[in-house]
Amino acid sequence: MIKRGIYSCAFPPHEGPSKIPADKPAHQLNSRQVLHKYWARWSRWHKYQPLEHIREYFGEKVAFYYAFIGHYTTWLVPASVMGVGVFVYGCCTLRDNVIVQETCHSHNEFKMCPLCDDKDSESCKYWYLSDMCGYILISYLFDNHGTLVYSMFASFWACCFLESWKRQSAILASRWDMVDYIEMQERARPEYTSKCTEFAEDPITGLIEPHFSHAKRLPRLLVGLLSLLFLMFLSVCCLLLMLLFRAVVTAAMFKNKLFRSAALSVANTTSASANFLLVLMLEYLCYYVAFGTTEWEMHRTQTEFENQVIIKVFLFELFNYYLSISYTAFFKANLAGKPGDYNRLFGSRFVECLNGSCMFELTQYLAIIFIFNQLFAQASELLYPKLCLLLHRGSVGFPAEQKNSSKQWESDFALIPYQNGLFWEYLEAVMQFGFVTLFVPAFPLAPLFALINNLVEIRLDARKLVLETRRPRPERAQSIGIWFSMLKFIAYLATISNATLMAFTSEFLPTTVYTMLYNKGLEGYKNFTLNFAPPNTTSEPCRYNGGFSQHQHSEFYWKLMAARIILTLSFQQVVFAVSRLVSWAIPDVPSQVENRNQRQKYLARKSLIDRDILGRRFKRVDFFA
C-alpha cells in the first residue's frame, strides 16, 4: 500500500515524549523516557544496558542486537588488556634488542640500493639502512616475541567468545520465551506475491499460494553471482591502482633528500587512505547491487530475502576489505624482485619492504583502515541522522512548531524513518570482529580501539533509536540469526591467517632459527639477511632486502622452511583441537536453562492432556444426559 502511494508511511507511535521532566520520579516516566534516562545518555557509558526495557519497547530482534554488542564489548576487555601488554612488552625490551641496535648504530655500514630506477640521475641516490632507524624501532613494537603468544590468545579468545555468546543467547531466548519460536509461518513478502504469475499448493498448509519455481530462480541466482564477481573484479582493479599510486609516490619522495627517510611511510599512509575511500565507494555500490539482484531473485519470505542480501554483502566486504591487507601480509615481500630484475606494474616497480618482512607495513595499513573506518562510522552515526532529520522535515513541509504536538503520531512523523533495520549495525560489528581477530598479530591494539568505539557506538545508536527515529515495528527473533555463522567463519579464517602470518611474515621464526644455528645473541643478523646486488646491475655495490634468497638451498633455508611449515600446521591444529574441546565441554545451553525449557514443555503437554481429558468427561456427561 505504501509502495502504491495509498499511504505515505506506517509506523507504531512512540509512548509519549522523550524529554525527561525534572519533577517526575522514575516510576512515573513512560517507557521512552526510561530508555532515554537509563540507556540513551552518554553518562551511562559504563553501565549495563536495560535489555528488558529494550525488548519490551522495541521487540526481541532489536534487543538481541544490543545484547550481542554489549556481550561482545565486555569480551573486548581481556583482549584489549592482552594487546596493550604485548605493546608495552615491546616498549620495555626495545633498548635491549640487538637487531634494533645494530640497525640504528650501523651508520654507513649497509649501503642500500635506490628505491627508484634512475640510477644515473643525481636525484636517485643510494641510502643507508641507519636512515630507517625510526622505522625499525616502531616495527619492533608490534613484531616481537610477545606477538606469537598474542596470536594464539586471539584465536582462543574468538573461540571462547562465540561459545559464551551461544550460552548467553540461549539464556535470553529462554527468558523471552523465544526457544520454540520458528519462522515457518512467516508470511510471504508483498513484493513476492504481487509479482508471482503462478500458483501452487503449499505442501505444509495445503493452501493455494503464489509460487515462483526454482527453475526460474536459478538463472537469476547466476546473474546475482556474476554481479558479485564483477564487483570483486572492480576491487582487484582498485588494488592495482593503489599499488601503482604507492610506487609513484615512493619513487617521487625518495628523490627528495628531506623526505627520503619517510618515503615509504608517507606512501603507505596515502595509499591506504585512498584505498579506504575506494573501499567505501564499493561497499555502498555492493549494497545496492545486492539488494537489487536479491529483489529480482524473488525470495518468498523476508527472512530468506535478508539472508541472501547479508551473504552477498558479507562475502564482498570480506574480499573488499582484506584483499589489500592480504597482499601486504603474504605477497608483497616476494613480488619486488631484485636489482636488474625488478617486477613492474605498468612500468613502475613494486615497492619492497624495508625491513625484509612486511609486518610494519601491515601494521600501518591495518591501523589506518581500521581507525578511519571507525571514525567514519561514528561521524556518520552522529551527523547523518541530524541531516536526514532536517531534510525530512523540509521535504514533508512539517512545521517546526509542531515538533511538540499533542498528538504523538504527528511528533513521530517529524522524525526520520527507520530504514534497513539492523543491517548496517550488524555488518559493522562483524567486520570489526574481523579486524580484531584476522591479522591481529600485526596490530595488537585493535581490540582497544574496538572497545573504545563500541562504548561510544552503543550510546550513539541508543540516542538515535530513542530520540531521532520513528519507533521500529517490533519483531520477534530467537537469536542474531545468520550473523552468527558469519562470526564463526571469520574465527575459522583467523586461525589460518594468524598461523600463516606468524610463520611467513613475522620476524619471529627467522630470528629463532638464526639463534639456533649461528648466534644466540642475534649479532650479525641484519648483515645475514641483507642481499648483495648482482654484479653489473647497479653503478655501485649495494644491498637490498630480498628475504633469504641468497641462502637458498642452505641449511638455514631448509630449517627455516621446515619450521614455518611445522608452526603453521601445529598452530592451526592446536587451536582447532582446543576449540572443539571447548565446544564439547561447554554446552550451548546452560543446564538450568535446559531444565527450565523442558519444564515448560512438560507443563504445556500436561495442559493439553488435561484439557483433552476434561473435554472427554464433558462429552460423556452430555451423552448420559
Automatic annotation (TrEMBL):
Residues covered by the Anoctamin dimerisation domain: 1-51
Pfam name, any one: Anoctamin
Domain of life: Eukaryota
Annotated membrane topology: Multi-pass membrane protein
Any one GO cellular component localisation term in the record: plasma membrane
Name of protein: Anoctamin
TM stretches of this protein: 221-245, 265-289, 309-330, 433-456, 480-504
Main location: membrane
Keyword vocabulary terms for this entry: Cell membrane, Glycoprotein, Membrane, Transmembrane, Transmembrane helix
Residues annotated as signal peptide: none
Domain Anoctamin transmembrane: 54-600
Organism expressing this protein natively: Macrostomum lignano
Compartments, record wording: Cell membrane; Membrane
Family: Belongs to the anoctamin family.
GO molecular function, one term: protein dimerization activity
Record has Transmembrane helix as a keyword: yes
